[in-house]
Amino acid sequence: MGIQQFIESALPKHVMEIIYPSMFSQQESDGGQGNALRREFDNEVLMKDCIVSVMQIGVSCATTSPSDRMHIADVVKTLHAIKKSYIRTH
Fold first, then answer.
1. With contact defined as beta carbons under 8 Å apart, do 57 and 78 qualify?
2. Nearest to 61 by CA among 51, 75, 47, 48
3. End-to-end CA gap in the chain
4. 3, 58 in Cβ contact below 8 A?
5. pLDDT tens track, the chain, 90 positions
6. Contact 26/38 with Cβ under 8 angstroms?
7. What's the confidence (pLDDT) of residue 38?
8. What is the pTM for the complete model shown?
9. Would you say which domain of life the source belongs to (predicted)?
10. How many domains does the chain have?
11. In terms of DSSP H, where are the helices of 26-89?
12. How far is CA 19 from the centre of its chain?
């Protein structure tokens, strides 16, 4: 199984198991205040949804066949939509 298939099979249910754990650790060098990403996403569900959305784009961009990949214009448009959605709810 390649990395693309591994991530695709893990989304969305197991996303927090495949990302770098210290990204969301509360035990950071800033005195337990959590890192910038954790502070930005104080709602864990919102954080997970955002990560899943971005990783789904990554999976789409990593397909074996170039003709099956998202076009870069669609990637940018989708990333902007994700950003707007999460900024609006945060």
1. yes
2. 75
3. 36
4. no
5. 787 888 888 888 888 888 876 666 554 455 555 555 555 556 777 878 888 899 999 999 988 899 999 999 999 999 999 988 877 766
6. yes
7. 54
8. 0.68
9. Eukaryota
10. 1
11. 36-40, 44-61, 72-89
12. 8
- Chain position carrying tokens 């337990």: 32
| Tokens found for residue 30 | 């800033």
Give CB contacts under 8 A, 24+ apart, made by 8-17. 8/59, 11/52, 11/55, 11/56, 11/59, 12/48, 12/52, 15/48, 15/51, 15/52, 15/55, 16/48, 16/51
What is the domain range of residue 43? Answer: 3-89
Contact (CB, 8 A) for 39 and 33: yes
Q: How far is CA 70 from CA 7, 62, 75, 89, in A?
A: 17, 9, 6, 26
